[in-house]
Amino acid sequence: MESTITTYNIERNDIGNAGTVASLTKRALKRQGLSREFVKTVTIGVYEAEINVVIHSYGGEVTVEKADDYIEIIFKDVGPGIESIENAMTEGWSTASKYAIENGFGAGMGLPNIKAVSDEMDLHSSKEGTTLRIRFYITEDCYER
Amino acid sequence: MNVKSIINNHHFTLINNETNLDNKINKLFASDLMSHVMGFAETEDCLVTVLNNINVLGVASLLDFTGVIFSHGVKVNDSIIQKANELDIPLIQTKLTTVEVINELHKLGE
Predict the structure, then answer these.
(1) Beta carbon pairs, A and B, within 8 Å
(2) Which helix (H) or strand (E) holds A137?
(3) Euclidean distance between CA atoms B63 and B86, whole angstroms
(4) ipTM value of the model?
(5) Which residues pair with A73 in a beta bridge?
């Protein structure tokens, strides 16, 4: 089984570059012949999580692992953590700053969107940082016909 | 409906390069909140928004949108136009409000 791992840094409040990891992941998956629908699903999950790190955290790192039968993306930031994961998972609930809202974010849809598109999702958070793991399974149906 | 049929209407102006004007639009999707767009829009939709920042193009590119319509006469800065040219995404500007855009384009039909 072949597996590739790529790591990227995400800077705090770097809204201009937010979406770069999603865009590079999209390109890599398309190149491998995965279907438009599958690529869109993964892209939504990566984009939302990437935005969360940019607008809510002090910055962090993303690891994208592509294996034959899954793609797993792990986002690790260095704080300040999510006060209530239950609230954060509720559609429409948001703690976004004025800066984030002015840039079109803060709808309170990020984590619910991620949960909706991913096959597996784990979220752990403390004041020292938040780790989000999402996984998408790749089956034969995920390839372009 | 494609981008060309939209800009043939006098209320709408193309503000960047003439590329991908013949691509068929799936449907119009109006929102100013990018997570709503990510969560609910579909591939090949055309976005109607008043949000004039670079993230709109990030989302438009990730979802393979056929175009972006900036309503309410919002000013679109050069960096957005430049990025749209790199991504080959048509940008359209109009003085109409978002609701008026939907009404006007509804007349164009499929």
Answers:
(1) 68
(2) strand A129-137
(3) 16
(4) 0.86
(5) A64, A134
Q: Among all residues of chain A, which has the CA nearest to that of B56?
A: A104
CA distance B14 to B18: 8
At B84, which CATH number? 3.40.1390.20
The span from the CA of A62 to the CA of A132, in Å, is 10
At B12-67, the pLDDT tens digits run 999 999 999 999 999 999 999 998 999 899 999 999 999 998 899 999 999 999 99
**Residue-wise pLDDT tens digits, A102-125:** 888 989 999 999 999 999 999 999
Domains of chain A as residue ranges with CATH: 4-142 (3.30.565.10)
- Cβ B55–A19 below 8 Å, yes or no? yes
Selected residues 103-142 of chain A with any CB under 8 Å from a CB in chain B: 103-110, 112-113, 116
What is the C-alpha separation between A127 and A76, in angstroms, rounded? 13
CA distances to A6, A28, A54, A64, B37 from A57, rounded to whole Å, are 21, 26, 6, 19, 22
Given a contact cutoff of 8 angstroms between Cβ atoms, the answer to whether B34 and B51 are in contact is: yes
